[in-house]
User: Which sequence fits this backbone?
């Protein structure tokens, strides 16, 4: 019994296929990887983030994108779709299609059971290779937890957190503070059953 090797796709071949596809796929090392759908809670949180950050930055030279903006990590070759992206200053794109951002300032991921270890591990390792990236934010959807990793001058990453609904978190690179209650607007958390 033999298994046929998947044909290698160049980044250019991936972009041609991806731009025609009905669903989103990530790309890494010659392969495309289909992305799973999102829950109601996930979509609400992403919408809340885009709205709050977008409103706070509306009079500044920044752009806020939802999850349809692809990001390329040039040093590792990963093409992926963060849940939300912010670029301040002049955005740089892969090509004249303007759908693959090269220089995000802040990236947001809403964690799920199926993606959490990847978002915290390998994906964060890829993101750290983006020279323009100042902050990486992970938001848990089943409890209040907003973790913001900020790049330091020495190359390290400083963690700041919001862990209660009354907390706020400041995205220093954007000079924007957002209340956790706004990030989690319309989310109803299920209380664990008593033991």
Assistant:
């Amino acid at each position: 019994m033999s298994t046929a090797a998947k044909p290698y796709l160049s980044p250019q071949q991936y972009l041609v296929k991806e731009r025609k596809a009905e669903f989103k796929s990530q790309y890494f090392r010659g392969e495309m990887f289909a992305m799973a759908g999102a829950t109601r809670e996930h979509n609400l949180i992403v919408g809340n983030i885009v709205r709050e950050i977008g409103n706070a930055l509306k009079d500044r030279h920044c752009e806020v994108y939802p999850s349809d903006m692809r990001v390329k990590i040039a040093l590792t070759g990963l093409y992926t779709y963060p849940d939300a992206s912010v670029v301040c200053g002049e955005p740089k794109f892969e090509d004249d299609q303007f759908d693959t951002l090269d220089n995000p300032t802040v990236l947001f991921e809403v964690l799920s059971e199926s993606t959490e270890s990847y978002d915290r591990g390998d994906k964060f390792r890829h993101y750290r290779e983006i020279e323009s990236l100042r902050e990486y934010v992970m938001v848990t959807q089943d409890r209040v937890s907003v973790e913001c990793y900020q790049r330091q001058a020495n190359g390290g990453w400083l963690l700041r957190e919001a862990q209660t609904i009354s907390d706020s978190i400041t995205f220093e690179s954007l000079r924007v503070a957002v209340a956790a209650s706004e990030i989690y607007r319309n989310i109803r958390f299920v209380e664990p059953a008593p033991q």
The chain has a mean pLDDT of 93.
